[in-house]
Design goal:
This protein is of the alpha+beta class. It has one domain: L-amino peptidase D-ALA esterase/amidase. Helix content is 22%, strand content 26%. The protein has 7 helices and 18 strands. The strands form 5 sheets. It has a 6-stranded mixed beta sheet. It has a 5-stranded mixed beta sheet with strand order 1-2-6-9-4. Strands 15-14-17 form a 3-stranded antiparallel beta sheet, covered by helices on one side. A hairpin with a 6-residue loop joins strand 1 and strand 2.
């Protein structure tokens, strides 16, 4: 059941005019990729990366001093570094549709990407590739995207500080916030090393050794337990936050930075040396309204927080990784 706060934040990233979302989910194991398409003209784009183990593509060009202002799609993918191959399929689909940065000899699609590590779930030889990225583009629409065990969230897990055997199922979620005629939406794939909370209520994360209840990752750390089984680059929360107002590149970069405030409101611990947390920001400029930067930042952080919660509430358990709903059901019948 959604909290009262999440009932007030029910929308999706496709509430931002000009965006379309498509998923590809592997049929043979829990992995996949998700693409956010920005339309023929693209959107002003930026990226902010936290944590010590990121996996990204074409993020340098999105910096405040990069020469390219607009991206034509953003890819979120499972498969760890192998999953970056899926961006090639996104590029091919965009090129076939005449979308890209105009150069004297060709249109070059700009497709930044971020990946998460899901190789510990099922057969690691199965991961998103160029064909998967192409299929995600072909499936993209402006309809509310599916949440939970789809796309980049298909193999996501959370609560991994003390090994996968005590972890739970993560997923992908989306939300939007509308204030004064301005919309901000978020789409987040939650594969965190830490636990996920809805306000003060723990939802999913590190389980007790018997697997029947939540143990609390931060409590375990503060009690002196050492996460000896955790490995760098095996966890990450990645996502996209977008607004319909016009922003310049620096303003979009600042929006990406402040959107990260939504992560610690829902995940703890977060931004660790084991995570590669990355958030992209997009400004489509389809709305002529002006937006106050402080209000826009507050909206972005709240949309990210709500999307994380929705990802966990929408997730379904898979063998070895119960969902938040599974644990809640078990507790109610104990």
């Amino acid at each position: 059941m959604l909290s009262s706060l999440d009932r007030a934040v029910p929308g999706t990233i496709t509430d931002v005019a000009g965006l379309a979302v498509g998923h590809w989910t592997a049929p043979a194991r829990s992995t996949g990729c998700t693409v956010v398409c920005c339309g023929p003209d693209g959107a002003v784009a930026a990226c902010d990366v936290r944590g010590g183990a990121p996996g990204t593509r074409e993020t340098d060009v999105l910096g405040p001093f990069g020469a390219v202002e607009r991206a034509h799609a953003i890819l979120l993918s499972g498969g760890s570094a192998f999953g970056l191959d899926a961006a090639g399929g996104v590029v091919r689909w965009l090129e076939e549709h005449g979308i890209g940065y105009a150069t004297p000899y060709a249109r070059v699609p700009i497709v930044p990407a971020a990946i998460l590590y899901d190789l510990g779930v099922g057969d690691p030889a199965i991961r998103p590739d160029a064909a998967a990225g192409y299929a995600a583009c072909a499936a993209a629409s402006g309809e509310p995207p599916a949440e939970g065990n789809v796309g980049a969230g298909a193999g996501a897990t959370v609560g991994k500080l003390f090994g996968l055997e005590r972890a739970m199922k993560g997923g992908i979620g989306t939300a939007s916030v509308r204030v004064g005629g301005v919309t901000v939406g978020a789409l987040v794939a939650v594969n965190a090393i830490g636990d996920v909370f809805d306000g003060p209520t723990p939802l999913a994360g590190l389980r007790t050794p018997d697997g029947r209840a939540l143990a609390g990752s931060v409590a375990a750390l503060l009690a002196g337990q050492r996460p000896t089984r955790a490995r760098p680059a095996t966890a990450t929360t990645i996502g996209v936050v977008a607004t319909d107002v016009a922003l310049d590149k620096l303003q979009t970069h600042l929006l990406a930075r402040v959107a990260h405030d939504g992560l610690p409101r829902a995940i703890a611990p977060v931004h660790t040396g084991l995570d590669g947390d990355a958030l992209f920001a997009l400004a489509t400029g389809t709305n002529p309204a002006a937006a106050d930067a402080t209000v826009l930042g507050a909206m972005a952080a709240e949309a990210v927080r709500a999307a994380i919660v929705r990802a966990i509430r929408a997730a379904r358990g898979i063998p070895g990784f119960p969902s938040a709903a599974d644990l809640a059901r078990a507790a109610s019948t104990a």
